[in-house]
């Protein structure tokens, strides 16, 4: 079976590897163009592009699937297309090329969390269980019928990065199984059922912690935005980056944003009980432990996060 693979970030690489290992003929990879990374803004291939180059697979670089890209996809002659976090819309002309269509691996239990940031939004919302599905791609936003589903329990300390890493590997197995069933003529997609929720791409503002919120909500948000765009707050008008916090029920009474030192532990007040800071990156400095940062503060009790 000839397969076109579309994907861009690191979480898509396990699926590409799984398809190759399963013996599918991956005729081409569609991925977004090289992007500037780091302080020096060096143009860098996407993780999927880098892996495809290692595997010797033809690469189609495209930020948008226009008429020219559609012709390249058609020239590759795929029987099916597998897509995992490509990062762009697929127009109908391209959807119609493979005889089996496009099969999308999506990291949520659809119709929950349709959109670009399903795992992040799921963590922020406090879901206990998430998962992944394979579904037939349509022009609508993650609306197509579902082939297969897997579930994954959310762990208390899960960040979006950690949870996505697990789902990228279990999802790769699901995607391979789905394409094998499609190839054998044994796949049956069923319409989505349940309550629809949306998961738009996170912005920098989504990472801002509101200390008037309950500790549980703050903890969920911090984990949901880690590693990107990252949790942050402000101190003296400057943005301060934070790694996920630890809930401290029964801690001292602090007003929202108020800091206190308990032994070597740095606590911050919230709308309920305090949370414990783990690591902090002040403006213009490197990430450090909260204890190291606190030692550099003349009077921690006078410091208040905004």
Any chance you could write out the topology, listing elements then pairs?
Layout lengths: L1 E6 L5 H9 L3 E7 L3 E3 L4 E3 L2 H9 L3 E3 L5 H10 L3 E5 L7 H4 L6 E5 L11 H8 L3 E8 L9 E8 L6 H24 L31 H10 L6 E5 L2 E5 L3 E2 L11 E4 L2 E4 L6 E2 L2 E3 L6 E2 H6 L11
Parallel strand pairs: 1-2, 1-6, 2-5, 6-7
Antiparallel strand pairs: 3-4, 7-8, 8-9, 10-11, 11-16, 12-15, 13-14, 14-15, 16-17
Q: Low-confidence spans: pLDDT under 50, at least 5 residues?
A: none
Distance separating the two termini: 56 Å
Rg measurement, Å: 22 Å
Order of helices and strands: EHEEEHEHEHEHEEHHEEEEEEEEH
Give me the number of helical elements.
Answer: 8
Oligomer state equals: single chain
Secondary-structure-derived class: alpha+beta
Main-sheet strand order equals 5-2-1-6-7-8-9
Task: Write a compact overview of the structure shown.
The protein is of the alpha+beta class.
Descriptive notes:
- The chain is α+β, with helices and mostly antiparallel strands and 306 residues long.
- The chain has helices at residues 13-21, 47-55, 67-76, 92-95, 118-125, 160-183, 215-224, 290-295; strands at residues 2-7, 25-31, 35-37, 42-44, 59-61, 80-84, 102-106, 129-136, 146-153, 231-235, 238-242, 246-247, 259-262, 265-268, 275-276, 279-281, 288-289.
- The chain contains eight helices and 17 strands.
- A hairpin with a 2-residue loop joins strand 13 and strand 14.
- It is elongated and about 65 Å long.
- The mean pLDDT is 95.
């Amino acid at each position: 079976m000839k397969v076109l693979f579309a994907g861009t970030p690191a979480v898509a690489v396990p699926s590409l590897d799984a398809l190759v290992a399963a013996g599918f003929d991956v005729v081409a990879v569609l991925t977004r163009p090289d992007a500037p990374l780091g302080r020096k803004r060096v143009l860098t291939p996407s993780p999927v592009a880098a892996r495809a180059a290692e595997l010797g697979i033809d690469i189609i670089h495209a930020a948008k699937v226009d008429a020219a890209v559609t012709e390249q996809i058609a020239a590759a002659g795929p029987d099916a297309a597998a897509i995992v976090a490509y990062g762009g819309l697929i127009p109908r002309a391209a959807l119609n090329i493979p005889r089996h269509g496009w099969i999308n691996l999506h990291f949520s239990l659809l119709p929950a969390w349709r959109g670009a940031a399903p795992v992040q939004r799921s963590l922020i919302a406090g879901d206990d269980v998430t998962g992944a599905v394979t579904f037939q791609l349509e022009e609508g936003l993650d609306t197509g019928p579902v082939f297969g589903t897997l579930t994954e329990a959310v762990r208390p300390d899960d960040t979006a990065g950690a949870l996505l890493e697990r789902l990228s590997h279990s999802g790769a197995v699901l995607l391979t199984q789905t394409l094998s069933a499609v190839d054998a003529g044994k796949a049956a997609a069923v319409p989505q059922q349940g309550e629809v929720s949306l998961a738009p791409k996170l912005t920098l503002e989504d990472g801002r912690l509101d200390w008037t919120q309950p500790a549980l909500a703050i903890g969920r948000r911090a984990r949901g935005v880690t590693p990107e765009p990252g949790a942050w707050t402000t101190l003296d008008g400057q943005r301060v980056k934070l790694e996920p916090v630890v809930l401290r029920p029964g801690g001292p009474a602090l007003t929202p944003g108020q800091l206190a030192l308990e032994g070597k532990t740095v606590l911050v007040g919230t709308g309920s009980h305090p949370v414990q800071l783990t690591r902090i990156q002040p403006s213009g400095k490197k990430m450090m432990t909260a204890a190291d940062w606190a030692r550099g503060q003349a009077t921690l009790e006078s410091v208040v996060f905004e």
